[in-house]
UniProtKB/TrEMBL annotation:
The keyword Phosphoprotein applies. It comes from the Bacteria. The lineage of its organism: Bacteria, Bacillati, Actinomycetota, Actinomycetes, Micrococcales. Gene3D superfamilies: 2.60.200.20. Keywords: Phosphoprotein. This is FHA domain-containing protein. Residues 222-272 form the FHA domain.
Amino acid sequence: MQLRPDGTGTVHVNEHASACAAASTARLRAGALARAVAVARTVGRPVRVVLADATGASLLAAHPDGTLRTLPAEGAGAPVDVPPAPCRRCGADQPVAALACGACGTLEPLRVETDPVALLDAATLSRPDEGLLASLPAPRPVPALPTVPDALPDGLPHGLRDGLSPVSVPVLPDGRSPVSVPVLPPEPAAGGAARDAADTSGGHVLVLTVDGGAPVRVPGGASLGRDPVAPTGRTPVRVVGATVSKTHALVDVEPDGTILVTDFSSTNGTHVLLDAPVRLVPHTPVAVPAGTVVLLGEVRCTLGLSA
């Protein structure tokens, strides 16, 4: 980790380098060490950290539980104190080990990388150790099979049925049923008054990609599950699978484009894939960036936005 006095720096994980920036050197240091703790948590063991700044270089050990210690030539080393630092979204102080902000729910609240950090996989870590490789999920190929038409759920409110059409995706080899998603039709050059009145996401439209299928646009928020109940303002998105609950998770889009994911007390959990999968606390909204992959049980769903 190279930290500069102007609040910029570079974090290296093996041969993968990420540019970083923060409002102060203290905030930059906290964010860089938070990344080291995240990597330690992923591999399940302490990792060696070389921290270089204007005062020189120091060798540290970052532990999965968030503790940091000096790494002398002999002995256990001394604890390193890293004061809480402001969340990148709301400014509330968070510890270096925080997975999500306790105030606003933002994941990785101390992140300082200027570009989104890629999902931790063999392409991101150029020399992953065997323990890490064993923990990586195998990619699930999606065969080119004919699509199967599916009807809209009977419980879809009449107001959402008007102007919507079902979308079908390929049948998956493990016996899952098709996914039925009510989506918006192509938008006209000028939006209608009814569309404007119903739009609460500031012009941002949620885009879902389920298990490698075609991306589909969903009006407003989404309620995901085998046969989901759709709270007011959300579109029911039927995702049928052995590990998916009846109403599994809710996805909402705020006016500024922030995506909120909420686990709906699902049986097999809703996981957000960061450097390591994070299981969401039921009924606690968590903010995630566009492009985030979530697991509904074992079904992968990528959350995106379109204007």
